[in-house]
Structures are given as structure tokens and as C-alpha cells.
Specification:
It contains six helices and 17 strands. The protein has about 230 residues and is α+β, with helices and mostly antiparallel strands. Strands 4-3-15-8-9-12 form a six-stranded mixed sheet. It has a five-stranded mixed sheet with strand order 6-17-16-13-14, with no helix packed on it. Bound molecules: manganese (II) ion (MN). Manganese (II) ion (MN) binds next to loops.
């Protein structure tokens, strides 16, 4: 058997699509930090500072219905429900007025966070990777095409744990709108088809424990369910 590669190439991570057997291949996952004022306040951060970006890896995606083992090293894993934007094209220095032309669709994701490790990194002025970037840290529901649902700029975003609502907000509360996020991020890196952006979380983040059942959604976009399993 001949191959271009010296080992078998890893599988292409992909997101499910509502009402379609085809999937959306993921190139990069970018996340926006501090994009809702009430969440900035609940974590005691400086509300005058602008949002910013960090990254997760494509293979950290997990599908709807997944059970995610409670991760290693942490005693404080928290949920952050977020609107997810999936790009069909990109470029450098995209003007906000043209940004939505690059969006293929939208979904609902959870930016799972080892908060204790994130906070410890912040105090030491170290990168956030250990707190944000871990196996299955980016569960995401099936995408809805913009061709079907349009480009949501408002709508309820919510998350419940074991039937009790923990997070609620509205997309209209985002400090940077989706076009602004795409414009800003495209100044930092060249965006391209397959890029996925998690757009920040509203207030109400809290700790999860093994056995917790999470349901979340963005009205008009979709929903996502996941369970936290026993420690890995
Ligand atoms: Mn987040």
C-alpha cells in the first residue's frame, strides 16, 4: 500500500449539518474572550478592555449527544454556551460590511473551560491553553445554513444543567457583533473556508460535575445536548 504520508493521516474533524448527511469540515477553531458585559462583570474583569481571541484545535470538537469524561487536572470545569459561526471563505482584512458574505452557517457550542487552570495561568501571565484547550473541549451542535436561517443578530441564548437554567442572554448583547468579530480576527490571521468561531458567552457560567446533563441553544439557530461523564 502506498501513501504520501509516513503515518496514516488523522481524520478530518467535521461538524454535523441540520437536515443534511454531508458535514462541515473544520479547519481552525477561534474563540472570542469577554464578549458579553455581564459575563465580564461576573468574572471580575475590566469591562473597558476590548474582547480578544484564543484558539482550540479542530479535533477538540465533540458532537451533539456526546458524553464527555470529566477532564484531567481540574476541580472546576465550567460551561460557556456560545453562538458558533462557520465560514465558507475568508481572507485578510475583511471589512465588517462584507463579513457576512463569508459565513456558511451557525450553530450552538459550549466552550468548556478548566476555570481553575485558566485563572492560575492568568495570574502567572501565561497562555490560557491548559484551561481552554483540552480533549472534547468544544462540543457543538449541528450547523444551520445561513441560506436557510439568515444571519441572526438577536435571539435568546441559554443553557440549563439538569433542567435548571444557568445561563441566559441575547445575541444582541454581544460587544463585538459577528461582522465585527470576523473583521477583527481577519486583521490577526487570514481566515479561510472551514474556520469556526465561538463568539463568547453570556453571564451565568458555573461548575459542572460528573453526571450533569446539559441542554443549550440559540433561538432560531439550534440546540445541543451533552453529558459529563466520570473522570477520564
Ligand atoms: Mn468562551
Amino acid at each position: 500500500m502506498s501513501s504520501t504520508y509516513v503515518i496514516a493521516p488523522p481524520p478530518q474533524p467535521a461538524l454535523a449539518v441540520q437536515g443534511d448527511s454531508k458535514t462541515f469540515p473544520v479547519r481552525r477553531i477561534w474563540c472570542v474572550g469577554r464578549n458579553y458585559l455581564e459575563h465580564i462583570r461576573e468574572l471580575g474583569n475590566d469591562e473597558r478592555q476590548p474582547p480578544f481571541f484564543f484558539a482550540k484545535h479542530p479535533d477538540m470538537i465533540a458532537p451533539d449527544g456526546v458524553t464527555i469524561p470529566y477532564p484531567t487536572l481540574t476541580k472546576d470545569m465550567q460551561h460557556e454556551v456560545e453562538l458558533v459561526v462557520a465560514l465558507k471563505s475568508g481572507g485578510l482584512n475583511i471589512p465588517a460590511a462584507k463579513a457576512l458574505d463569508h459565513v456558511w452557517g451557525y450553530g450552538v457550542g459550549v466552550d468548556l473551560t478548566r476555570r481553575d487552570l485558566q485563572m492560575a495561568s492568568r495570574k502567572k501571565e501565561q497562555p490560557w491553553e491548559i484551561g481552554k484547550s483540552f480533549d472534547q473541549s468544544a462540543p457543538c451542535g449541528a450547523l444551520a445554513p445561513a441560506a436557510t436561517i439568515g444571519h441572526p443578530a438577536k435571539g435568546r441564548i441559554w443553557l440549563s444543567v439538569n433542567g435548571t437554567e444557568r445561563q441566559t442572554g441575547d445575541l444582541a448583547q454581544m460587544i463585538w457583533s459577528v461582522p465585527e468579530i470576523i473583521a477583527k480576527l481577519s486583521q490577526q490571521v487570514a481566515l479561510d473556508a472551514g474556520d469556526v468561531i465561538m463568539t463568547g458567552t453570556p453571564a451565568g457560567v458555573a461548575a459542572l460535575t460528573p453526571g450533569d446533563k446539559i441542554e443549550c441553544g440559540v433561538d432560531g439557530v439550534g440546540t445541543l445536548k451533552l453529558t459529563i461523564g466520570k473522570p477520564a
